Amino acid sequence: MIKYLGSKRLLVEHIVSVCETLRPHSGTVLDLFSGTSRVGHALKNAGFGVIANDHNSYAHTLAMCYIQADAARVERDATRIIHDLNALPGRDGPFTETYCRAARYFTPENGARIESMREHIESLCLEPELRAVVLTSLIEAADRVDSTTGVQMAYLKSWAPRALKPIELRLPNILPHPEGQPCRAFQLDALEAAHGLSADIAYLDPPYNQHSYLGNYHVWETLVRWDDPETYGVACKRIDCRERKSHFNSKVRIEDALRSVIDAIDARTLILSFNDEGYLDRDQIESMLSPIGPIAIIDHDHPRYVGCKIGIHNQRGEKVGRVGKVRNTEHFFIAGEGAELFIPESETISVAG
Fold it and tell me: Is 213 a residue whose pLDDT tops 50?
């Protein structure tokens, strides 16, 4: 899966274990801020029904691939299409000009092949799940040959070694649907989804500070939308990065936004993942969760996102400083039915990097 700020790669096994303790015979989990769908994919693999939601187009595409798509229905056709895409020659156009010359996210050779593949996908008029699988294959292939520090706020001054490799698509790890369990992907505002969707367990991993996922992954948004947007700045961000602002990225608005979502959730148990770099402290979050029932809090110490290991870079990709803090604490709040099972475990757990 793609490199992602705030990814739960190192914590996903723990999240699945918590859900299995809460619902030992499986059930349904609502992943309200699904991002890469890494957590939802692992829960689906463990036999849970998963209802994924994210308002960004690229994240919805990933969820359509990893959650809603059924391997038995799409794998054969996706394999054939991916094989055909890998054989296409490059096609230089607006995407290559913007993201390989005006900006340097990919080499022009890889950019032209990305452009050619994406145009071909658009011409096929695929059904939604198959289209999502093929687009996910393209996004992940592009991610393997990008020249960034892990986010698309900037690109490196010199090409990263991986960027010089030719792009190659692979079939994503699509899963079969667990028997008798729903697996769906939605593209709704978080509050709208909280009001309209229900599950046994709700898992919330919201944005927690000023870092906008749309701003950090705007190239993937453009690759999915394929809308040749107006851009701005050295990073060539989509113009709507200025307009599509989330309350969860605002220090002033996040508390009311999260409280509204929590109050609207229809689930027996709520699991909230929140980082110690976030705008809210533990007391504020406990106050929001207290009406649901008992609360357990388990802290996980783990490495910060990949970019912090590389250092601080300016908009031209030039290293301008070092990051002082290299580890974070992730707070897992478990509230409602079953939370008492975890109260004795409410302690700090270290996750190796």
Answer: yes
